From TrEMBL:
Transmembrane segments: none annotated. Involved in the modulation of the specificity of the ClpAP-mediated ATP-dependent protein degradation. This is ATP-dependent Clp protease adapter protein ClpS. It comes from Marinibacterium profundimaris. Belongs to the ClpS family. Residues 18-96 form the Adaptor protein ClpS core domain. The gene is clpS. One of its GO terms (biological process) is protein catabolic process. InterPro entries: ClpS, ClpS_core, Ribosomal_bL12_C/ClpS-like.
């Protein structure tokens, strides 16, 4: 049995990849009422009023704030839904998305 050669199967590459994640970002503006921003954050991103107030204030003070992180389709849908909610009331409220590194 000295010549027996063990041929190993080439290792299969792991095929399950982590989905890329995207941040939804709230941008500050000078016109949208604070209460309205909080209401949108609660309804679209399912935050409590306390959480939503903190995020709103962070965006108000810093210019922008990360609201949440999702897969791309979900991030796009939420950002659009929240931006549309502002537009339907005539507010310039804006949410963007950004790839998380
Ligand atoms: N800056 C707005 C105001 O003073 C509130 C706001 C916060 C708007 C966060 C947009 C984002 N009414």
């Amino acid at each position: 049995m000295a010549d027996t050669e063990i041929v190993r199967k080439p290792k299969a590459k792991p095929r399950v990849e982590r989905p890329k994640l995207y941040k939804v970002i709230l941008l500050n503006d000078d016109f949208t009422p604070r209460d309205f921003v909080v209401t949108v954050l609660c309804s679209v991103f399912r935050m409590t009023e306390d959480e939503a107030s903190l995020v709103m204030l962070a965006a108000h003070r810093q210019g922008a704030c990360v609201v949440a992180v999702y897969t791309r389709e979900v991030a796009e849908m939420k950002a659009e839904e929240a931006t549309d909610a502002g537009r339907s009331w005539g507010y310039p409220l804006a949410f963007t998305i950004e790839r998380e590194d």
